[in-house]
Amino acid sequence: MKRRFIIFLCLISMFFAVNAQETERLMLSGTGNDKTVNWDFFCTAGANSGKWTTIPVPSNWELHGFGKYNYGFDKDTLRGKEEGLYKYKFAVPAGWKGKQINIVFEGSMTDTEVKINGKSAGAIHQGSFYVFKYDISKLLKTGDNLLEVKVSKHSSNQSVNNAERKADFWIFGGIFRPVYLEALPKAHLERVQLNAKADGFFEANVYAAKGADKISIQLYDNTGAEYGEVIDAAIENQIRIQRDFVNPKLWSTEFPNLYTAKFTLYKGNQIVHTISKKIGFRTIEVKERDGVYINGVKMKFKGVNRHSFYPTSGRTTSKSISIADVKLMKEMNMNAVRMAHYPPDGHFLDVCDSLGLFVMDELAGWHGNYDTKTGTKLLGEMMENDENHPSIIFWANGNEGGHNRELDNLFAEQDIQKRPLIHPWEVFNGFETTHYRDYNYGIGNYDYGHNILMPTEFLHGMWDGGHGAGLEDYWKTMWNNPLSAGGFLWDFADQGVVRVDKNGFVDTDGNHGPDGIVGPYHEKEGSFYTIKEVWSPIFFEHREMTVGFDGSFNVENRYAFTNLNQCTFEWRLEELTNPISVFKNGTATSPSIKPFEKGILKVDLPKDWRNYDVLNITAKSPNGETIFTWSFPITLPKDEVNKLVVKTGKSKVNVVNNASTYEVSANGIDVVFDKTTGLLQKVKNAKGEIPFTNGPILQEGVNNFKNFTHKTIGDTVVISSTFERKENFNTLEWTIYPSGIVKMQVKYFPLAYFTTFVGMNFSYPETEIKGVEYKGNGPNRVWKNRMKGNQFGIWKKSYNTSATGEPPFLYPEFKGYYSNMYWCKFIGRNNTFKVYTDQEDIFFRLFTPKKSKDTEWDNMSPTFPNGDISFMNGISAIGTKTQKPETTGPMGMKHVFYDFEKEPARALEMTLYFDFSGN
Hints:
Layout: H1 2-19, E1 24-27, E2 37-43, E3 52-57, E4 70-71, E5 83-91, E6 100-105, E7 108-109, E8 111-116, E9 119-120, E10 132-135, E11 144-152, H2 158-165, E12 170-171, E13 174-175, E14 179-184, E15 189-196, E16 201-208, E17 214-220, E18 226-234, E19 238-244, E20 259-267, E21 270-279, E22 284-287, E23 291-294, E24 297-298, E25 301-306, H3 319-331, E26 336-339, H4 346-355, E27 358-366, H5 372-386, E28 392-399, H6 408-414, E29 421-422, E30 427-428, E31 431-432, H7 439-448, E32 452-453, E33 458-460, H8 471-480, E34 486-490, E35 497-499, E36 505-507, H9 526-534, E37 538-540, E38 552-557, E39 568-575, E40 582-588, E41 598-602, E42 614-620, E43 626-633, H10 637-644, E44 654-657, E45 661-666, E46 669-674, E47 680-685, E48 688-690, E49 693-699, E50 709-713, E51 716-720, E52 731-736, E53 742-748, E54 754-755, E55 758-763, E56 769-778, E57 791-798, E58 816-818, E59 823-828, E60 832-837, E61 843-846, E62 869-874, E63 895-896, E64 908-915
Parallel strand pairs: 25-26, 25-34, 26-27, 27-28, 28-29, 31-32, 33-34
Antiparallel strand pairs: 1-14, 2-3, 2-5, 4-12, 5-11, 6-10, 6-14, 7-13, 8-9, 8-11, 15-16, 16-19, 17-18, 17-20, 20-21, 22-23, 23-24, 30-31, 35-36, 37-38, 38-41, 39-40, 39-42, 42-43, 44-45, 45-46, 46-47, 47-48, 49-55, 50-51, 51-52, 52-53, 53-64, 54-63, 55-62, 56-57, 56-59, 58-61, 59-60, 60-64, ...
């Protein structure tokens, strides 16, 4: 027993001896916006300045009521005056005696002067987004130590301001990333640079402080098991180690396999220092005039630009925010992210490594750049902190003209992996990355250019424009063009700041900040779902559910590394009824379809499948995440009308032919039509009047309905206009059935060859609406150039006045266009009515959304017809911040119709059935 106890004590001693040789860390601040530490604070200018108080660290001081809020374009009246003074007392652990102690700042904006016990820790650091440190071993004392930090919001180095401060984003001040002490043995590993290739080749540059004579490296897989043999090497100040490993599991966005490389430094047989690094085996290769290859596979990047940002804490984030951001990007079926426009928090790169996302890491610069001396230092800090992340496959030297070309060679010189360098917005290094090209010009370049095409910003979102709107057209061309490597949308989330000086108002600085696919708190906008479908790695060819359908779907595998037999497919047949849907469901055998190949997914449906309304197919990734759910309607609108619209009844249809109106009543329903125009004037049921009137008024067509007559045909009454080719070529016909159902049939010709939209309008007071319930595609509204992303079903929506990108960021919005209408129930405050159609591809429109402030070019043009409620054969598109609708691709262009004066004349039709009973 005694012997066992002695062995136990020895093991414990060995455990602590080994772990004592790891780099030790003492947090002085919190770790992010979810865990902070209060420091003493003094702000020199702006709100709450001129007095000592406290502030959480890390944070941006504006978000805590200090200084002044600045967007990059504004004229800062406090420029050069706004500074933050910090004080914090700390004690160093007794066990750290004799070690090298560094103080580490992960990010401080911007000029940062550090003192320990009244003495300077080193030169003032200039540059906001970079990890920097000072060796403060000689400045420390026993007991309490005083840390003093002075942070200037704007730099005394004008090149730093040009690169970081004069930019299209919020400008904050403060120590916004964590601060901590790290303790290292005198002999320690200063830096390791790793390169792990897809063929198993592994190399490391090792930099060590003097005092050790041997190093060993051991790799471990994700279970903790040893992988490969241990590598031993004699140590000098700098050495390069190379080995080959057999059949490593490769890192990619689809299979982010990681290994741990543990480096152990020895003095004789004694361990003096150990560090561990996550690595991924993967190879990046750029083939000139061809593309970017990862692990030998040619890639299409489905990317987005992402700021380090959160509305309540500015640039101070947390690992949980990083996880949420990456999960949302992957939920949209993205595989890449570009850092805009500076290096991110380290935990964001960790999450990209572990969850699988390609990264373009960027040295700051936006139309302006760092001078060479400053840029060289900051580039080195970025490289040392970020270089070993397998997720990083590109470096970017500034953005949109903010490229210091004297720094270009340093990327290759300092990067052991020799990752490709990009100049976003330029034709550079074999890449064409120009931003925001119009579809026609850009696609022409795609067809006739010679560089690898990869716009680092395209489809600049603003409010509800861009992102999903236009993406389908762009992506069709990008996918099919061999020179296209994909691209990056601008940008991920609305940059809305919670203003403590405005009672919590979320400020996007007008139209500068609402550029996101998601809202400030990650609220999903309509484009989120469009992107999810368009960028799905599984592509379903269009399929009509006809009588002869045998359950076979033509599909394309757009994964790069995944066979579709690694995915799962679930099907669900639904009979859409209210309030409960009847359904059958099952799974389909996953077909073996290799990446970039086509094949057939066979769904074994029950014999009665045509008795259902819709077939939904949900695909899930190898990890079980939902890729997308595709809807295939089985019943058609005419089937719905035949099933639900009752025309017969015991009631008789009565008509009163007045001098100016037709008053018609049937089964408790009273309707009044204008005798001259044929327009609906009044509707009433047993509950009272329904304020649905003044229609149909044609949009982009001539209301030349004339010469109305009425007649009784069997038990129905028909009121119709008279067709005459020159004067009254559009026709309107009302049919009133004994059941009280009112049928409207319009045949009409658009006013012009090119039309923004076509359809007809009715009046309905917006103050009367409570909500709608409809059968069609939902739940999100659509635009002509943003049709993807919805499912077919029955949707119930309450009225709201939400405007995309503005508080209260409540989605989905209510007002706007909706597609594939079968029927819609309009729920009023005092009465309801229902509208059916027997036609396919009919849109309905609910009121007019707020038109948010556009740019001076008025590019978005979110156009809506007149009236309040509309039923449309064609709807309008929406533009982006930088492009008008028609320049986002064919779907964004106006509708084109035949000239009705030419033979054969082809009229558009609209048939609606109105149930005004209120039941």
